[in-house]
Amino acid sequence: MSAILDWFTAHPQFTAALIACVKAIVILLGLILTAAWMIWLERRLLGLWQDRYGPNRIGPFGLGQVIADMIKIFFKEDWLPPFVDKATFVIAPLIAMALMLLMFAVIPVAPGWGVADLNLGLLLMMAIAGLEVYAVMLGGWASNSKYALLGGLRVTAQTVSYEVFMGLSLMGVVMQAGSFNLRDIVEAQHGLWYIIPQFFGFCTFAIAGVAVVHRTPFDLPEAESELASGFHTEYSGMKFGMFFVGEYVGIVLVSALLVTLFFGGWRGPFIEAVPALAFVWFALKCLFFMSFFILLRAALPRPRYDQLMGFGWKVCLPLTLINLLGTAAVLLLSGPGA
Amino acid sequence: MSFFFYLAAAVAVIATLFVIGGRNPVHALLYLVVSLLAVAGIFFMMGAPFAGALEVIVYAGAIMVLFVFVVMMLNLGQATVDQERHWIQMRYWVGPGLLSAILLAGLLFVLGNGGTHPMSMTEVSAKQVGIHLFGPYLLAVELASMLLLAALVAAYHLGKHD
């Protein structure tokens, strides 16, 4: 036993790499499990708000429902319709799931815990978010059916529009923190969370985040009353499952980003005394936003498609631009150069 | 590091060949996305992570999305594939091939004469890019913004209902 320990102390670089790998795998598994159990959370909370029980049969509080659903979806026939464009049809759900997981890499979960510590972390996140469109777009196109194509077109237009000010709304935060690195941004929120100086940035980013992961009320691409289920109409089995879980990973990711950028990340009372509390604070804050997104679904109706696009370009974009200019002016006047 | 450079460069070249030779327009565009991502990877390796990230955001994430979007909306299907098959014949390769060969010869001549300098490995941060854009290159930035504004006005005019 001590020989093994000696070997690890003699190879510090290898040990550091190994620890980083283990941490990354722990975060990945934690993220997937959280996303899967969010399906249960969503169904229970919707049940609560709609005066019914929701899934409560399997395990305590129905917690085992997710396991049952997963077993079912794994054993479903994975049917490849004969009329689809095979290569792109198969690759689309992979892109959806993989890119969502990849984006989480830049998020600092707790001090010293996070997959990648990049100087351009936020920018990389935006780049991956830009590529995420291809998943739904290709899914819609490759399915070779009318509903899927309409859903694909809608989701593309919606995502491209909302990504424009999703990036712009974050630039105020970047300006205040002086860095694209999410760890620096968390550090810079010492004393004052950015929700107060960047309130408009927070509002627009939250709206854009819901629109980019196309959740209700912005789920027009998969509006079941008019488009069957939009871009994933033709998908079945695990391929559908990847789109489905990918969406929940997206919600966890948007919640984590909101927490990191505007609510001080893992900051909270007593973290100096008990360092392990940092992760608890991060998780609690994320849980709050995840529940908030579920409440949005329970409370709001779907807008019309032109209302959705008009709201994005005519309200949110000017608001982010004003926020950006205002932040720049305040920083310039209060900075050391003034 | 140079191994990864050659890997990314090979991916970029091969993907671009598929873009030119591909018959299905959507597949061709996807290969172009792969090619752009490979080029972005090269930027990252050369110590220009900001340029690399912008390459992904602007080209792969925005411009190519619009390309694919338009092709998707036209959704011509089998008819286009047949048309492309008809178009891509050996005799159509001669002219572009000849012109490309001239360019390749010029490139090899320049590279062979020792006019190269080693790849710089200093990392260019976003801040330095900003300082340069709003310092020595301010005029170019302003000109580009005027051009984009003109394009915006034109697009608004074209899209207006009357």
Largest interface: A-B, 29 and 24 residues
How big is the Rg of chain A?
Answer: 21 Å
List how many beta strands of chain A DSSP finds: 0
Class inferred from helices and paired strands of chain B: mainly alpha
Strand content of chain B: under 5%
Q: Mean pLDDT score of chain A, rounded?
A: 83
Order of helices and strands of chain A: HHHHHHHHHHHH
The CATH C-level class name of chain B: Mainly Alpha
What is the count of structural domains of chain B?
Answer: 1
- Uncertain spans of chain A, ≥5 residues at pLDDT below 50? none
How much of the sequence lies in strands of chain A comes to under 5%
CATH homologous superfamily heading of chain B: NADH-ubiquinone/plastoquinone oxidoreductase chain 6, subunit NuoJ
Task: Give a quick precis of the structure.
With 338 residues, chain A is mainly α. Chain A is 69% helix and 0% strand.
In words, what does this structure look like?
The complex is a heterodimer of chains A (338) and B (162). Chain A is mainly alpha-helical. Chain A has one domain. Chain A contains twelve helices and no strands. Chain A has helices at residues 2-10, 12-49, 65-75, 86-103, 121-142, 146-177, 182-188, 199-212, 224-227, 237-262, 277-299, 305-334. The radius of gyration of chain A is 21 Å and the shape is globular. Chain B has 162 residues and is an all-alpha fold. Chain B has one domain (2-124): Four Helix Bundle (Hemerythrin (Met), subunit A) (Up-down Bundle). In chain B, α1 (2-21) packs antiparallel against α2 (25-45) and α2 (25-45) packs antiparallel against α3 (49-74). The longest helix of chain B is centred in the middle third of the chain and has 26 residues, at 49-74. The A-B interface holds A 85, 87-88, 119-120, 123-124, 126-131, 133-134, 137-138, 140-141, 144, 149, 152-153, 156-157, 160, 163, 167, 180 and B 24, 26-27, 30, 33, 49-50, 53-54, 56-57, 60-62, 65-66, 68-69, 72-73, 75, 77, 125-126. Chain B: InterPro entries: NADH_UbQ/plastoQ_OxRdtase_su6, Nuo/plastoQ_OxRdtase_6_NuoJ. Chain B: The chain crosses the membrane at residues 6-22, 29-50, 56-81, 93-114, 134-158. Chain B: Its main location: membrane. Chain B: It catalyses: a quinone + NADH + 5 H(+)(in) = a quinol + NAD(+) + 4 H(+)(out).
